[in-house]
Amino acid sequence: MKRIILSVFYLLTFSIFLFFTYFSIFGFETKKFNKQIENRVKASNEKLNIKLNKIKLILDPLKFQIKVKTLGPKLIHNKKSLSFEAVQTKISIRSIFKNEFSLNNVKASTNSIEIKNLISFIRSINRSTELLILEKFVKKGYLIADLDLNFDEKGNLKDNFEINGFIKDAKINFLNKYRLENLNLIFNLDKKKLQLKDIKLSINNLKFFSNNLNAIQINNKFELSGEIENKNLILKEDNIDLLIKPYFENVNIKNIEFNSKNAFSFIVDKKFNIENLRIKSKINFSEISIKNKFKLNDVFPKINDILKFKNQTMEIDYKKDNLKIKGSGDIFIQENKDK
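Given the sequence above, the corresponding structure tokens read:
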């Protein structure tokens, strides 16, 4: 009898060991927690629903937690949906014994999402004017993001979230004048800071790139800073009329060829008022052509109809109404070049 009891005990112990080993390595799939998750999401917004597939559970015996992961969930609000590739979290085993469902941290990865659809989904929850304007400006583009969200004991979202991802092939049209196309970038967002890296874009068919742009929230304002560069750009009359002529109405510029490296910083409020603007630029002009409208024949009797500046190097430093410009190069006013 004693031998039978010991055999049953060893068999039971071995079975429990196998169960926890399988649970720790391979895990189990279930729909048991789906309703609880759906209720928690609905409690945050009664019009917000989540559609879940099976949830996979894997035991972490060292931390006394269960890892939870589901593939292909979908958020739904007013018939608009947002698809995710995967969502995962960890649940304390103690909270299960206490009949509680506690989410401390949630990590989610989105599928490739059309930016217009994402803005439309957010607008269905938050109908702000800014989002409406942004939705009209954005013409196309895709976004993929990883979200890291933390919750307090009551299930409220903490402000120490982090979102990483990238935007690909975006197109934005501002008032049918400024066309941002082929926009590609990597981004990192938290409560107080937005950081953009590896930015490539074209503005009205002019290609620019930047390794770093930052927006930091300071009280109710934002401090923006970064660098932007271009290589061997040629501005013809259409872009000159749009980008330069409004600021130099009396100068008839025909052609500009240049490359530049520019650093900037400024503070902007919610009404888009700008303060503390600082710009530092290094510009190399291969050529600037200006139509001669100046009455200088008495000084230069053989003055050209087109004035040309070539191989010009210029440094610009602007800070609070103080503008400094330093540069040199060749100028063709008459037959021979001058410095």
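The longest helix spans residues 2-25. Try to locate this feature in the token string yourself.
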